[in-house]
C-alpha cells in the first residue's frame, strides 16, 4: 500500500498527524501535511482512518 | 425546559436566514428537533421554506453534506445573499459589504483568498503546537476546579467552568487580556442569538472591532509573545484584517468549546452508564470526545453555502443562486452512515463526523478544542466525586435561541470531600 500526500490541496487540519503520527506530520509554518514515510502493515488502520477523515482529500492510500 | 424565545414581528430581517423556529425547538436536550428529523426523512437533500418565504436547501445526509462542503462551487461568501436581502437600508447593505466589515473574514471567503489567509494561521494550530499547550490547559482546568471546590459543593458549571476554561485559553493564546472578557463575551452572546436583527449585528460588530482595534494598535507599538503580535510581526496584514481575524478566533475559540463542555457534561450526567464507563476507563476520553461532538452537534444552524452554478447533489439538482444549509445534527445521525445513530456510546469507533465541518473551511481550532474537551471532562470527572445535576434535567435552560446550541446554565453539585 502506498500513501500519497498533496500539499497543494491540504488545508492543515491536522487529522492525519493526529490519527497516524508515525506516517504523517505537519509543516511547522503552514500546517500542511508532511509524509514521514510509507506505512507498515501495523500503521494501515490508522492511515485508513486518516484518509477517511481528511477534510480536503489531500491524502490517498492505494495499491494492494 | 424553556430558553426558546418567540420570534417577534420585526420590520427588518434576521441576519442568519434561519430555518423555521421548529427546526431549533427541542423535545429532548440531546436529540435533533422533531421538525428536523421529519425533514431528514424526506431525503438527504430537500427544500424548506422558511418563515420569511425564502427557500433553503437543507442537506441532512452525511455523504451529501460532505459532498457540498468539499465542493467550492458552493460558495461561503454569504454576502451574495445579504446583497439581495429584502428589508435592508442601502446604508446597512453598504456597511455589510464594506472593506472594513469583511477584510480578513476568511470564514466567508472562497479559495484562493480563503487559502491565503488560512495559511497564515494553520501553522499556529497544528497538532504539535496544541500538544505543547497541554500542561498550561491542564493548569487552567485545575485552577477552575480548585475555585469550584473552594466555593462549596455546588456551582453553575457553565459560569464557573465551561465558559472560563476556553476563554482563558484563547485569551492567552491570542494575547487578549482576560480581565476585559465582559466586553467580548457580552457582544458574542448577543451576536450569536438566532434572531439577531441586522441593525444589532452592525452595532455589536462595531463594538467588537473597537475593542480589538485598541488591542491591535497597542501590540503594533509593543508586540508580545502571542498570536496577534506574531501576525503583526510576520505578515503584512492591515489593521482591518487583523481586527476581524482576531475577533473571529476569539469568538470561535470560546463559544464553541464552552458549549461542548457544558452540554457534554449534561449529556454524560443523563447517561449514567456512559459516565460510569468513562470514569472507569479514562483512556476512552479520546473516543468519548469524538462521540459527544457527533452526538450533540452544537452547530445546529449551518454552515451555509450559495450555489454558484447548477449542481447536482444526491440526485437532486440545486439551481444556481440557491441557499444551501448543512444540518450537522442530521448528518451526524444519518442512519445510512452511523450504526444506531441515536445512541450515545463513549466507546464508539471514531468516524468522520461533521461537528468541525468538512472541506477547506473545516474548523481551524479543532485540535485545540479536542485537547480542551479531553482534559476538561477527564479532570471534572476525576476531581468532583458524585458530580450530579442540582436541578431536575427539564429545568436546565437550553440554548434553542442561539446559533451555537448548548445550555445557558448547568447547576451541578458534588460530594463534600
From TrEMBL, chain A:
One GO MF annotation is: electron transfer activity
Q: What domain of life does the native source organism fall in?
A: Bacteria
The UniProt entry's coiled-coil ranges are: none
Keywords (A to Z) from UniProt: 3Fe-4S, Electron transport, Iron, Iron-sulfur, Metal-binding, Transport
One Pfam family named in its UniProt record: Fer4_13
Cofactor entry: [3Fe-4S] cluster
Relate the protein's function as given in its record. Answer: Ferredoxins are iron-sulfur proteins that transfer electrons in a wide variety of metabolic reactions.
* Name recorded for this polypeptide: Ferredoxin
Name the encoding gene, please. fer
UniProtKB/TrEMBL annotation, chain B:
The text of the family note is: Belongs to the cytochrome P450 family.
Concerning InterPro entries, the annotation shows: Cyt_P450 (IPR001128), Cyt_P450_B (IPR002397), Cyt_P450_CS (IPR017972), Cyt_P450_sf (IPR036396)
Q: Which organism does this record belong to?
A: Actinokineospora fastidiosa
Asked if the Swiss-Prot or TrEMBL record annotates the protein with the keyword Electron transport, the reply is no
A Gene Ontology MF term for this entry? oxidoreductase activity, acting on paired donors, with incorporation or reduction of molecular oxygen
Supply the source organism's classification.
Answer: Bacteria, Bacillati, Actinomycetota, Actinomycetes, Pseudonocardiales
Q: Superkingdom of this entry's organism?
A: Bacteria
Task: Give me the ranges of the annotated region Disordered.
Answer: 1-44
Q: What is this protein called?
A: Cytochrome P450
Q: What UniProt keywords are attached to this protein's entry? A: Heme, Iron, Metal-binding, Monooxygenase, Oxidoreductase
Amino acid at each position: 500500500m502506498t500513501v500519497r500526500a498533496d500539499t497543494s490541496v491540504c488545508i492543515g487540519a491536522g487529522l492525519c498527524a493526529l490519527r497516524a503520527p508515525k506516517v504523517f506530520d505537519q509543516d511547522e509554518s503552514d500546517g500542511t501535511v508532511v509524509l514521514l514515510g510509507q506505512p507498515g502493515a501495523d500503521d494501515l488502520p490508522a492511515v485508513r482512518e486518516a484518509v477517511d477523515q481528511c477534510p480536503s482529500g489531500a491524502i490517498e492510500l492505494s495499491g494492494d | 425546559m424553556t430558553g426558546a424565545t418567540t420570534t417577534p414581528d420585526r420590520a427588518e430581517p434576521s441576519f442568519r436566514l434561519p430555518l423555521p423556529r421548529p427546526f431549533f425547538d427541542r423535545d429532548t436536550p440531546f436529540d435533533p428537533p422533531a421538525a428536523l428529523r421529519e425533514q431528514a426523512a424526506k431525503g438527504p437533500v430537500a427544500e424548506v421554506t422558511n418563515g420569511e418565504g425564502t427557500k433553503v436547501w437543507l442537506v441532512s445526509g452525511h455523504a451529501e453534506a460532505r459532498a457540498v462542503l468539499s465542493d467550492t462551487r458552493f460558495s461561503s461568501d454569504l454576502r451574495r445573499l445579504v446583497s439581495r436581502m429584502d428589508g435592508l437600508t442601502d446604508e446597512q447593505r453598504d456597511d455589510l459589504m464594506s472593506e472594513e466589515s469583511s477584510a480578513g473574514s476568511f470564514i466567508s471567503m472562497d479559495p484562493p483568498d480563503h487559502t491565503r489567509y488560512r495559511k497564515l494561521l494553520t501553522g499556529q494550530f497544528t497538532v504539535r503546537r496544541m500538544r505543547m499547550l497541554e500542561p498550561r490547559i491542564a493548569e487552567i482546568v485545575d485552577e477552575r476546579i480548585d475555585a469550584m471546590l473552594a466555593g462549596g459543593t455546588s456551582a453553575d458549571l457553565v459560569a464557573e467552568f465551561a465558559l472560563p476554561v476556553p476563554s482563558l485559553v484563547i485569551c492567552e493564546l491570542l494575547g487578549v487580556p482576560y480581565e476585559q472578557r465582559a466586553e467580548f463575551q457580552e457582544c458574542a452572546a448577543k451576536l450569536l442569538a438566532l434572531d439577531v436583527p441586522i441593525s444589532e449585528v452592525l452595532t455589536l460588530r462595531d463594538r467588537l472591532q473597537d475593542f480589538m482595534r485598541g488591542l491591535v494598535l497597542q501590540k503594533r507599538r509593543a508586540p508580545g509573545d502571542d498570536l496577534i503580535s506574531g501576525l503583526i510581526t510576520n505578515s503584512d496584514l492591515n489593521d482591518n484584517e487583523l481586527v476581524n481575524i482576531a475577533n473571529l478566533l476569539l469568538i470561535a475559540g470560546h463559544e464553541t468549546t464552552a458549549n461542548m463542555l457544558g452540554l457534554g457534561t449534561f449529556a454524560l450526567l443523563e447517561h449514567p452508564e456512559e459516565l460510569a464507563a468513562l470514569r472507569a476507563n479514562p483512556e476512552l476520553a479520546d473516543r468519548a470526545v469524538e462521540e459527544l461532538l457527533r452526538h450533540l452537534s452544537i452547530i445546529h444552524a449551518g454552515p451555509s453555502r450559495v450555489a454558484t452554478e447548477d449542481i447536482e447533489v444526491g440526485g437532486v439538482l440545486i439551481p444556481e443562486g440557491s441557499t444551501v444549509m448543512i444540518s450537522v445534527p442530521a448528518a451526524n445521525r444519518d442512519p445510512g452512515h452511523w450504526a444506531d445513530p441515536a445512541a450515545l456510546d463513549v466507546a464508539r469507533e471514531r468516524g468522520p463526523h461533521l461537528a468541525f465541518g468538512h472541506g477547506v473551511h473545516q474548523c481551524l481550532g479543532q485540535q485545540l478544542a479536542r485537547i480542551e474537551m479531553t482534559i476538561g471532562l477527564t479532570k471534572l470527572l476525576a476531581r468532583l466525586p458524585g458530580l450530579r445535576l442540582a436541578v431536575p434535567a427539564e429545568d436546565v435552560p437550553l440554548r434553542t435561541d442561539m446559533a451555537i446550541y448548548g445550555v445557558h446554565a448547568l447547576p451541578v453539585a458534588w460530594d463534600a470531600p
